[in-house]
Design a protein that fits this description.
By secondary structure, the protein is α+β, with helices and mostly antiparallel strands. It has 9 helices and 10 strands. The longest helix is centred in the middle third of the chain and has 16 residues. The structure holds 4-diphosphocytidyl-2-C-methyl-D-erythritol and adenosine-5'-triphosphate. It catalyses: 4-CDP-2-C-methyl-D-erythritol + ATP = 4-CDP-2-C-methyl-D-erythritol 2-phosphate + ADP + H(+).
Amino acid sequence: MRLATRAPAKVNLSLRVIGRRADGYHELDSLVAFAGVGDELSLSPGEPGDMSISGPFASSLSTGPDNLVLKAERELREEIAGLRSGRFHLVKRLPVASGIGGGSADAAAALRLLARLNDLPLSHPALLATAGRVGADVPVCLEARARVMRGIGEKLGPVQRLPRLFALLVNPGLAVETAAVFRALGLQPGEGHAVAVEPYKAEEPSPATATELIDVLAATGNDLELPARAVAPAIGEMLSALSALPGCRLARMSGSGATCFALFDDCRASAAAAKQLPFQHPGWWVKPTMLR
Ligand SMILES: C[C@](O)(CO)[C@H](O)COP(=O)(O)OP(=O)(O)OC[C@H]1O[C@@H](n2ccc(N)nc2=O)[C@H](O)[C@@H]1O
Ligand SMILES: Nc1ncnc2c1ncn2[C@@H]1O[C@H](COP(=O)(O)OP(=O)(O)OP(=O)(O)O)[C@@H](O)[C@H]1O
């Protein structure tokens, strides 16, 4: 039997860095949402540890043991003796190392498929523990629903019922290494981070409309944007181009970059921008999508 699932792109609508832990990782406070665009993963009968990849970004990745799909499978097998598994096929539609958690989404998708095959609930402690070990963004990608994540990604707040946002996801075709961006922030282990941007306040009543949500988000930010722009100056150019699009209400970077998103009040404005941008910047990856 073949099991399949989508691996939606993760978007950090806001991201505040609280400080750096003694072990070098950074404590975050981030409102995360998920996009309509994503990878696809399937699991079929076959040899565990085996996988194939197709899709527009297949050539950016190997099918070796470093692939996060296989890493997640291996780690779960260590937690659960006798785990049933198989061979994976990944359709890679998201740019790699791009701040929208493609690898994390794939790893989480692998865990969801293995949970289905082995009749495990998603809340199974072995799944959660494995997710956290595979990557900081994997726990939030397990359920792939909008929420605030804290700690280094292991503390998940309640699911947020956000109004749908019409967005463009844009990447300049530049892989940016997450660790390099955190390094460029320049915090020492144990050091706190001065408040530069406000975190999203999830306790307050959720905004009822996209327009209200965008207003709330405008008061927040992404603390990794400045260090990422130092690592990859193309990000600054992209943010200026997005802000100048007709109807763009907010342009911001996701995660550690380089992917940025532009938010619009309605789908007509985002669709028009999606048509216009490729003429101005033919090399950029541009995806109109809904975030929720
Ligand atoms: C920036 C975000 O995308 C926001 O959602 C994530 O925190 C990054 O999550 P991720 O890509 O799953 O990150 P990992 O693969 O676990 O870590 C990559 C590297 O980034 C740094 N890292 C990551 C997460 C974090 N909270 N603090 C860190 O300092 C560490 O140097 C780590 O070695
Ligand atoms: N299935 C996979 N998809 C994407 N990247 C993978 C995968 N397996 C391994 N990797 C490696 O993981 C690294 C980070 O990939 P990923 O796409 O998750 O980064 P990201 O988009 O920056 O994510 P984040 O927003 O979590 O920082 C890359 O160096 C990539 O080579």
